[in-house]
Amino acid sequence: MKIRKLIALALIATMAAGLIMGVMANAEDQQADGEGKVEFKVPDNVVIPPYDPENPEEELPEDEGHEVLEPGGPLHLQVIPRFNFGIHDLSSDVGGTYDHIVPHYAHLVMVWDHRHITETGNGTPEGWSVYAQMTSEFEHATLDLELAGAQITFSDARSSGTGGQLGSVAPSILGGAGALEYDEVAGSRLFIGSADEGEGGWNTHIAFGENEEDIQLVIPTGTSAVSGVYTAVVQWTLTSAPKNAGN
């Protein structure tokens, strides 16, 4: 009996010692934080060439009705229109209305915007607006002559679309009918269209002038001209916020 009691006491002592050692070990646990890391960056070749609105997977064909600009920053104009009102016979009075020559598809303002994926973005396109302004009269190419008071008028026919990249959304705020006229003092501009918040990311466009009468050159009655080319400067402005944001 004594031997059995001694064995039992020894087992109890051993178990107690194990518990004490376990408590001491837990009291000395050490923790340290490591890390898991991943990085994303904007590719150097993130900007892709302008697309054909009729076939967005194809590049925009060359055409005298538009000008492709050099790539800029995260937000920039890619394509702007070039208006051509044709060649006409001279008369003593060239005043009247002249339809534009419709280019491939239509006249286009194309905008590239990837600000939303840069370090200053939040993943959602911020929107933008486009305006046009005539900053000169129609001036003769070689002589000091001009078609004073000539206007470029626009119908309210506008449309928009995207190149389909990464779920881009077409601009929804489109300008209406209006006119461009050189005004050295007022310098007024015409609203073309705007991408609201969440729209206009990546590659999108605004189109107008699908028909000849949608864009016209209106020269005041009684205007005289000489042989040659008359050209006016049309300035296109891209702002970094939607029109409904107060600009």
Properties at a glance:
mainly beta, 4-stranded antiparallel β-sheet, 5-stranded antiparallel β-sheet, 33% strand
Count of the domains: 1
How can the largest sheet be summarized? 5 strands, antiparallel
Number of helices in the DSSP assignment: 1
Strand order of the largest sheet: 3-4-6-15-11
Distance between the ends = 101 Å
Oligomerization status of the protein chains: single chain
Structural class per helix/strand content?
Answer: mainly beta
Overall body shape:
elongated
Fraction of helical residues: 10-25%
> How much strand content do the residues show?
25-35%
Give the H and E element order: HEEEEEEEEEEEEEEEEEE
Q: Please tell me how large the radius of gyration is.
A: 34 Å
